[in-house]
Amino acid sequence: MDLGLTGKRAVVTGASRGIGLAVALGLAAEGADVALVARDRAALDAAAGRVGGLGVRALPVVADTSDDAAVRAMVDRVVAEWGGVDVLVNAAATPAGGPVPALADLTDDAMRAEFETKVLGYLRCARAVAPHMVAQGGGRIVNVSGLAARQSGSIAGSVRNVAVAALTKNLADELGPAGVGVTVVHPGLTVTERIPALFAARAEAQDTTPDEVAAAFGAATSIGRLPTAEEVADVVVFLCSPRSVAVTGDAVAAGGGARGAIHY
């Protein structure tokens, strides 16, 4: 199937590593030009080199999505160089998977930090690209959230991801008549470059081995293992394409099938 992404102009935040980088590479493999956005210049340049190596235009832009002026400047640069934006993938967020504070230890500042990057950061990026998408007659926005939206265990994680889902539906309803589709993808724990250190830390804390930690996480999924960043990116890339027009305002889980949960 041709996804119809050849020549499309995509902006991917959080693109220097993890799921964001996998999405950038996936879009490039489908022929899209990709503006990669992140805070770490060295990592960003390395990622852009990989994307550009696939034969498309790669534009690395250093920007912090917690800064509205920086977000607007980033979008202005992409539009100035490429003439518009067809796709936005919001994937910039503080990493999940670390120690979860109890209620008594969860500070207001920690909650604000969760919202500043993931919820408000996604809003800022959508707000900056939306006028360009509306003016050109359409586009696609995909927000990478997380399965913490559907389960307890982390107050901050659940609240921020539920907020992203609510943001997504509101954007879809407002922008849909102008041809802009907006969806949210909920990954679970995903195999990225962070996983070896995370499993090692959990193994030490639980007096077990990293392999046993991995097996326990895998047993909680229908596929028996954690999905890779590339497998999550495949879902995101499809939702970025014109082929996904029938899906908007909805959430798509990409965690390998959480056992026991029923969503309808």
Provide a descriptive summary of the structure in words:
With about 260 residues, this protein is of the alpha/beta class. The chain has eight helices and seven strands. The protein has helices at about 20-30, 40-50, 70-80, 110-135, 155-175, 195-205, 210-220, 230-240, and strands at about 10-15, 35-40, 60, 85-90, 140-145, 180-185, 250-255. The chain is globular, with a radius of gyration of 18 Å. The chain starts with 8 loop residues before the first strand and ends in a 10-residue tail after the last strand.
Care to give the gist of this entry?
By secondary structure, the chain is an alpha/beta fold. It is built from 8 helices and 7 strands; from the N terminus they run E-H-E-H-E-H-E-H-E-H-E-H-H-H-E.
Keywords:
7 strands; 264 residues; single chain; globular; alpha/beta; Rossmann fold; 8 helices; 7-stranded parallel sheet
- Count of discrete alpha- or pi-helical segments spanning 4 or more residues: 8
The helix/strand order is: EHEHEHEHEHEHHHE
Placed side by side, the strands forming the largest sheet appear as 3-2-1-4-5-6-7
CATH superfamily: NAD(P)-binding Rossmann-like Domain
What integer value in Å does the Rg equal? 18 Å
Low-confidence runs: none
Classified by CATH, the class is Alpha Beta
Described by the principal axes of the CA atoms, the overall outline is globular
Question: How many strand segments?
Answer: 7
Given the helix and strand composition, which structural class is it? alpha/beta
